[in-house]
Write a structure and sequence with these properties.
Shape: elongated
Distance between the termini: 68 Å
Number of strands: 5
Strand content: 15-25%
CATH class of the largest domain: Alpha Beta
CATH superfamily of the largest domain: Ribonuclease H-like superfamily/Ribonuclease H
Largest sheet: 5 strands, mixed
Strand order of the largest sheet: 3-2-1-4-5
Number of domains: 2
Radius of gyration: 25 Å
Helix content: 25-40%
Number of helices: 6
Amino acid sequence: MRMRELAAARVRFGYRRLTVLLRREGWSVNAKRIDRLYSEEGLTVRTKHRTKAAGRARVPQPGATAPNQRWSMDFMSERVADGRSFRILTVVDQFTRECLCLLADRSLTGEKVAQALELLVGQRGVPHSITVDNGSEFASCVMDAWAYRHGIQLDFIDRANRWRMASSRVLMDGCAMNV
């Protein structure tokens, strides 16, 4: 009975925190028992599901030593005067620091990104790898299949080390401004 009162008073507390509170009040309870009773009473707290990052090994990649060896891709967002937003896909060669592609659209999905890269590969050739963040467009099945077909490795940066894309992002911002 006391467990229901505590759970009602502190809605965001799970069974572990309730176990601590009950022990503080002098109850000799086991966390497993509280978990079982907590579940039976339907008191479980909804949790936010985290999005899964791409499951690749986080190994520092060497810098590009030749043109067309490593590319970087990212999106920029902007709004027009009436408030509508659009995105720009920017692809930069890491060695030459040349802007290879700018694609602006209201909605850029993985399919549109793959189509743009298909045209770019037809013009420039196939890079060894492409550095991207963990955006849904880059981590999609379409992009994975496209990269596998062309033998390109998608290097996902981890969220903790976004500074790896900093030089490319500066180049991308400059590239978009010069167009």
